Amino acid sequence: MTKNVMPSAADFDAWTAEDEEKALEASAEQMKVKHLIKDGSVWFLAPHGHIYKLPLNLSIDDFVRLSDIKSDVEQIQTLKDMLTAFAGEEAAKELAKEPVMVPMNILNAYGEIIAKVQGADLGKSSASASSSKEKTAIE
Description:
Blueprint: H1 9-14, H2 17-30, E1 34-38, E2 41-45, E3 51-55, H3 60-67, H4 72-87, H5 89-97, H6 101-118, H7 126-138
Antiparallel strand pairs: 1-2, 2-3
């Protein structure tokens, strides 16, 4: 365990942009979240070992709720609500104890996964995208 030593005035004077970059990279690395997709769910492993489960197939209402989010606070609350619904109250309580970057990283990864699965980033499913290409090639 590292000691928490109070910095001196000289430490502040010596602080560089390079020091800042290294410190930010180290902090971001400590908050990374891993994921896997299994049995119709997306499973997330938080840095301190907690595992969270979210559905891979979102309802239209859940998708709209996630899409309409405007603030970080609303995003985290929506994630907690979804965890309560899909993984239970205990999972939402555990998430509330995580550093704020953990649920933000879960939300970012979850959004990317949902976009890939549902083709949301293109505005259509992968099946409709391929059928459109086939029609264009025939015409």
